[in-house]
Amino acid sequence: MNHAKYIGRVGGLAVALGVGLAVASAPGIAAADTADSSRDSSNTSQAGDSGGAASSEAGGAASSDRTDDATTQQEESAASDNGGQDSGLGADDDADSDGDSDLGDDLADELADDLDEAEEGAADVGEGTDLADPQVTDAGADEDTATDDSDDVVVASGYATQAPAESPAQAADVAIEQPAPQPAPEAPAPAVLPMALATLAGAREESERAALRSSAVAPPVIELLADPSPNVLVIGVDGTNLSRVLADLANTNFFGLIQDGTTAPASIAGHTTISNPSWTSILTGAWGEKTGVINNVFTPWTYDNWPTVFTQLEAFNSAIQTTSIANWNVISAIAGAGANPADEIIDIGQIAGDTDWLLTDDAVGDATELAIMAADPMVPNFVFSYFVGVDENGHMYGGASPQYAAAIRNVDRNLGEILQAVDAWEALTGEQWTILVVTDHGHQPQQGFGHGFQSPDETSTFVIAENPNLFAAGAINLKYQIVDVTPTVMTLFGGIPSTDSDGVSLTTLGSSDVFPVNDDEALRGALQDAIAMYGYPDIGTNIALGVRTIAATVPYIVYGLTESLTAGLQQIVDQEIFLISPLAALAIVPVRLIGNLTYVVTNVVAQIVARLTGVTGASIFPLWPPAPPSVESPLDTAQLCEGDTAAALPACGQIAV
């Protein structure tokens, strides 16, 4: 089935209606200046667990230094993407199906209506005119008139864009450029028809991504940086809806990073929204349809065939220090799987009595700060940090609950402290970190299943990429996908992404950046508009993936129940209670046997359903269930905070300087 093939179309439609209500076709129309974006505008934390509010405020000041030092490089960075090509909105000309064309026709009508609404209150766009007040003129003129009259332009209020000079029938790209201060903008060129916008506005064609993968070479951007020891931090926040992050103004650190970097309000419609398949996609660069991961049962053999980012980095350059910090043992097990596991794996179990997982998330944040400050500036460093608390609260209370919002705020505060540690480390070493933030899926608003199906709330994902030398500040890019994380990491360290990868390096997608006219209300609104445009996949895909989720969940439940019962019996055995403990020991054998046999039967059915619904990597072998993930527990925070370096960390009760 072609479930994955159309994943980017929703993104393309979203940018046409949400981010680019209209696109100006004048070569001289300038994009909004993003040079003033910095973390200090939104990096003050609201509360503190280990560093407190004072810690977060100090982090905001440190973050300001990080961005201010690099603002002079923004224009060079925007122009350097894709070997010096201008940053713009990429396009694909071909439609994959008649259904896509019909959807484009509907979109064109809706876009035209939006343009009419935007006309009210507009001002002329000309020399010396502020882009915050653009003019919206009639896009319905005939082609001859549009060709001759260069004064007509279509610009949506709140967005700064530029289109090519070709006629709409010939247009292949819509570019967005940072302007030179002089001379003043040229007269605008003809308007681009709404239908062309719908077709060209960032639609992710699989053929385009395949071409990028097949032509992958050692990235010139790394050569430009000439950095022998790059540093990359990937932060995974499970089950987090970007729309809810943006809706809560308390999430200042999330939004500060969005202002400083490039953000994709992405969707994985057409792919499962179960956690393990999505995180495997993030950590390998291949969709679950290839890897064969269909549920949350950890299958170690998967990562022999589909190497993790840790394995790929270690194979490319064993000098790279790779670290994984997570509070879900499946993530820790993935980091330890394959031929070359992560150098350091810190698995943090749920803290006793921490029913909402916030303290356990704090422990992840503390360990991440320590890993950053302990990083050796003489070697390349890769750190992956994973937070499960938001997802846990989504399952317990629903995505629209106050508890879910509180869990996001808690991660936001931890994010601020991590960024503070990054800024302090950069100030001490003179080096730079690239920061990627990603989620695996969203959450249903109500209490219940949480996720696993294809509603827009569940398929909603995001990717944030921040490095002032590599990614434009305050930009939106609807071509980013979560599967691009591993190829991007490989590229940042100077490697070549695997040709088997479904993802591409984010550094090759800079031409699809678009810029709202400011990095505050317009940026927040544009992201929300893009998210709001996502919908369900076609009914066939929706039904197929729903059936797959149900079939895949049954063996997972059986597996978890078996492990829970045997673990409980083992605890009784360990207590050495007279008569009771020996009976419990005897009961373990039949309980595990029955559980394993039930797993085999249900898993065979699940794998068959998976194969029939497009999972080419599905297999009934090995038949027997794998052992549960087993990762050695790390030192506690008190032990981690011993030493001179750690003493300066907010995680250890002091503000980093």
From TrEMBL:
Regions that span the bilayer: none
Chain positions covered by the region annotation Disordered: 29-151
InterPro entries registered for this protein in UniProt: Alkaline_phosphatase_core_sf, Phosphodiest/P_Trfase
Biased composition (Low complexity): 29-64
Coiled-coil segments: none
Compositional bias segments (type: Polar residues): 70-84
Superkingdom of the source species: Bacteria
One of the record's GO molecular function terms: hydrolase activity
Pfam family, any one: Phosphodiest
UniProt biased composition (Acidic residues): 91-122, 140-151
Name assigned to this protein: Phosphodiesterase
Keywords in alphabetical order: Signal
Signal peptide: 1-32
Gene3D superfamilies with a match to the protein in the record: Alkaline Phosphatase, subunit A
Presence of keyword DNA-binding: no
Source species: Mycolicibacterium poriferae
